[in-house]
Amino acid sequence: MDDATEETPARKRPPVQRVFETSDVDVARDFMNAAYGTSLRMRGSARRQLVRHARFDYGSFCLDDVTLSMETRYDAEPLGCLAVVEPRTGWVEHRWPDGGERVGPGEIAAISPPDRPFTALAHQLEFDSVVLGQPALERNATLPEGGRSESLRFTGMRPASPGLADRWRGAVAHVRDVLAVNPQAMSEPLVIGNMARALAESALAAFPNSGSAEPTSRDGSDATPGAVRRAVAFIEERADSDITLLDIARAARVSPHALRIAFARHHSRSPFGCVTGVRLDRAHFDLLQADGENGDATVSAVAAKWGFPKPSRFAALYRDVYGVGPHDTLSL
């Protein structure tokens, strides 16, 4: 994943779609080892049962759809990433040193702490999962400086509350909805970046972890108009790049907590409300410069380029700011 502090904007990275299906457990084991980047020892109750794995890989996160139509046991080395599963049918039980979870339909859980080896027993299991890479999680965790990779640990594999579980489901549903209605947008780096940020923030909020620095008394005194000016300047300079709240806070030379306080005190928008506004302005400029002969395709493409994957949402935001729809601007 590109470092957001580099001066070059994010590059397009077409998503990778893979669908694998086999009835041979040995073949399935080899595939799963490659897909999850770990050493996995898989044993099925029958030699020839369906194993299906469909994946959309966006670099910083993956969407998986998995079927294990048998009773399957496996042992795995640490995944090094957060894999959150939601079974549709069947159940799976994961065990790791000093803990474990059994998950069935309607429930959500992470497979195991990313840094722990684990064993699993799956029974006639079909599930959706989201795999979030450690870099995406660390980029959105408000860890103290100097303790980023060492300090981010997940201490609970279930959402901390039903409300946080719903927040996670909402973030995942949004990604899958965009994939269904506007798959072309999912190759745009700002769209992928926004979705990775939403998934990471939801995961960090939902699953107990060590990735949140506590507010300090200094945050209030740091929340100055100068911090907002530095943040806005950075946002305007880097609007075409995949930036996080931590990137903006570093540019403003304050903590993420102080940045939020500063914007609440001295700006009409939140930090990412400001990001959205600047990107909307850039989209407006592109539409003014565009050839309007192929209007639908142009509006959708410009919107996705600036991180707005849903044309209807983009049109509503655009009309609120400019008083006309994006197609009206395109036809000028």
TrEMBL record:
The keyword Transcription regulation applies. InterPro entries: Homeodomain-like_sf (IPR009057), HTH_AraC (IPR018060), PchR_regulatory_protein (IPR053142). PROSITE patterns: HTH_ARAC_FAMILY_2. The keyword Transcription regulation applies. SUPFAM superfamilies: Homeodomain-like (SSF46689). Signal peptide: none annotated. Pfam families: HTH_18. Gene3D superfamilies: Homeodomain-like. Keywords: Transcription, Transcription regulation. Residues 229-332 form the HTH araC/xylS-type domain. PANTHER family: REGULATORY PROTEIN PCHR. This is HTH araC/xylS-type domain-containing protein.
